[in-house]
Amino acid sequence: MALNVLMFYLLSAVIVICSVLTITTTRILRAAFYLLCVLVATAGYYFMVNYQFMAGVQLVLYAGGIVVLIIFSILLTSHISHKFAKPEAMRLVMGILVGLSGFALSTIAILKFTFTPSNAPAMKVDMQAIGTQLLGTGKNGYALPFEVISILLLAAMIGAIIIAKKGK
User: Fold this and answer.
1) Domains of the chain
2) Tens place of pLDDT for every residue, the chain, 168 residues?
3) Of 163, 151, 120, 14, which is closest to residue 22 (Cα–Cα)?
4) In this structure, are residues 29 and 35 in contact, taking their beta carbons and an 8 Å threshold?
5) What pairs with residue 27 in β-bridges?
6) Chain mean position to CA 15
7) 39 CB contacts (<8 Å, ≥6 apart)?
8) Could you say which DSSP state residue 83 is in?
9) Maximum CA extent, the chain
10) Confidence (pLDDT) at 25
11) What is the pTM (predicted TM-score) of this model?
């Protein structure tokens, strides 16, 4: 078995196991850690297919930003020892049913699609162009969307803290 195939199966196992653990654990901080593992393993997929930029965005924005924001909010609101209650039997059955139907739909869609390799030459990664787009405000610029998202995340964190503090 080739090393890249072994890496694919290893990353897939980490994603599946940590995804299940994220939604089944009763401890909120553990759920955030398992989510971090899923996001880092997803970045591993991007590295495997030579999308270094997307892997970097995945690590910095999602694994670095979102999960740190979640953990910071948990620690700031003093809910680190919070345990979720076990779900009712009907909700558990419905959740499993929805999950299995989503899995079946995804499997059918993947099996019916014919994957063909591309004959297009690989695009050269130009760091100058990527940097210009990230810092640009004009056409194909990403500075404004990043600023809007950062304000939205700040407002969401402040709102979550206020809601959490009202319960005490």
Assistant:
1) 1-104 (1.20.120.1200), 133-168 (no CATH)
2) 788 889 999 999 999 999 989 888 887 788 888 988 999 999 999 999 888 878 888 888 777 777 777 777 777 766 666 677 777 888 888 888 998 999 999 999 999 998 888 888 876 667 777 777 777 787 777 777 778 878 877 887 787 777 667 655
3) 14
4) no
5) 83
6) 10
7) 58, 59, 62, 63, 66, 67
8) B
9) 61
10) 84
11) 0.65
Residues recorded for the chain? 168
Residue 34 CB-density burial (10 A; 0-12 exposed, 13-18 middle, 19+ buried): buried
Q: Virtual CA dihedral for 37, 40, 42, 43, nearest 10 degrees? A: 180
Sequential DSSP letters for 22-82: HHH-SBHHHHHHHHHHHHHHHHHHHHHTT-HHHHHHIIIIIIIIIHHHHHHHHHHTT-TT-
Q: Encoding tokens for residue 99?
A: 């999950």
Residue 159: what residue type?
G
